[in-house]
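Fig. S4 source data, part A: sequence.
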Amino acid sequence: MALTQLAKSRWQDYFDHVSKALPTKLVEVEVAGLGLGDQVEVDWLPLLGLSYDPKDDVLTVMVEGIEHNIWHPKQIHVDQDVESLHSMEVVDAAGEHHILLLKDPLRLPPPSEGSR
């Protein structure tokens, strides 16, 4: 895995591509800052998509039932390998860190013949 800082000029295309290509993942979103400490905003819900709107300068994390908006992001770092995005850290204008951790959902085995 490699930690990479994304250039702001790539944010919109990067998140459009990731949203289309990302398999179903669960996401935890933690926000950390001097004034608020560490707070979990989203606790392992299915990630529906990520988008960056350059006009409003907002990164939106869409999860089941919630939109987490990060206004005026200043830096975005992603932890990824060739096949998958593992985590992301976004620093906003107020200096708060929005940390997204991704994991595959738990796949349950098919029911056994005797339980049907």
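Fig. S4 source data, part B ends here. Residues 11-21 form the longest helix (11 residues).
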